[in-house]
Specification:
With 304 residues, this protein is an alpha/beta fold. It has 2 domains: 4-221, P-loop containing nucleotide triphosphate hydrolases (Rossmann fold), CATH 3.40.50; 226-288. The protein contains 9 helices and 14 strands. The protein has helices at residues 44-51, 92-102, 107-120, 136-148, 166-181, 193-199, 217-223, 269-276, 292-303, and strands spanning 4-15, 18-29, 33-37, 59-64, 67-68, 77-80, 154-158, 185-189, 202-207, 210-216, 228-234, 244-251, 257-263, 281-287. A hairpin with a 2-residue loop joins strand 4 and strand 5 (67-68).
């Protein structure tokens, strides 16, 4: 059995005079939440459309669960596009039933699953409502249900939280984590780095049609760390030592000081503490770990 739900190998996609994807290779392990990141126009949507077989690649290969991507795989994939699209005049119930049948569910199986979701999302009174009578956030709840109703092996979510208030965003976030627990793999395309911090196990970054980063999120954050530490302390002002350089220091109203320390090559937090611990009264000491926002900006700038 394949360990990866999706293997994208050397994919190329051209539109007229524009190369949207330039020799892109990605590997999406099963049972993970995989962040697909990149600036606008980087090529993410082109790649998602190829995986969904909306368009085809001009070069390269794609394996789905160890086999060449085939037409039958549309039943194994759920796709929530950034540009939402529901039939405005249809009622919620008939709309969801129709979309479930397109994904291969029988009417009885679809009804059973829809009952579960209508209870879970507390939308039992929506069945007879026309889509056009729902708010944008309510419509997006319906589209999320349509995306995951057939329990696909791979779920592709493009900006799933846009238009949601914090309560409904948390509801969808919890559902994404539950779907992962039940065995689905989720590709999560977003510009919201706080969601990537919270949800993703793996990330890939595409910029200007090329892949510039891919791997476990924690490993990539480790690559981008600045080797700096923030120290809060009371006492005499510190000076740099062979273990660290003081980059910045700020006095606080309560008499404490907040200092940014840069560790010298090969030095770690314990080395810094040995120099500090007997000289001052330490209130807090922490390593400055790269945020996903930092990683995104640095990686894009480096690749540019």
């Amino acid at each position: 059995m394949a360990e990866n739900i999706l293997e994208i190998k050397n994919v190329i996609k051209n539109y007229a005079n524009h190369r949207a994807l330039d020799d892109v290779s990605l590997t999406v392990p099963k049972g993970t939440i995989y962040g697909l990141l990149g600036p606008n126009g980087a090529g993410k949507t082109s790649l998602i459309r190829i995986v969904n077989q909306i368009t085809g690649p001009d070069g390269g290969t794609i394996l789905f669960d160890g086999h060449p991507l085939a037409e039958k795989n549309i039943y194994d994939i759920g796709y929530l596009p950034e540009e939402r699209g529901l039939y405005k005049k249809m009622k919620v119930g008939e709309q969801l039933l129709y979309l479930a049948r397109l994904k291969g569910l029988s009417k009885d199986a679809a009804m059973e699953k829809l009952k579960e979701w209508f209870i879970k999302f507390d939308i039992k009174t929506w069945w007879e409502k026309p889509i056009e009578d729902l708010s944008k956030g309510m419509q997006q709840k319906i589209q999320f249900v349509a995306t995951v109703l057939h329990q696909p092996k791979l779920i592709i979510l493009d900006e799933p939280f846009s238009g949601f208030d914090p309560i409904n965003a948390t509801l969808i976030k919890d559902e994404i984590l539950e779907l992962k627990e039940k065995g689905s793999t989720i590709i999560f395309s977003t510009h919201r780095m706080e969601s990537v911090e919270e949800l993703c196990d793996y990330i890939a970054l595409i910029n200007k049609s090329k892949k510039v980063l891919e791997g476990k999120k924690l490993d990539i954050k480790e690559q981008f760390k600045s080797n700096t530490y923030t120290l809060e302390y009371f006492g005499e002002e510190l000076v740099s030592t062979p273990n660290f350089t003081i980059l910045q220091e700020e006095a606080q109203l309560d008499g404490s000081k907040t200092t940014i320390l840069k560790a010298e090559e090969g030095r770690v937090g314990n080395d810094l503490l040995k120099d500090i611990v007997e000289k001052v009264n330490i209130r807090a000491f922490k390593e400055d770990v790269a945020s996903m926002n930092d990683v995104f900006i640095k990686a894009v700038n480096q690749s540019n």
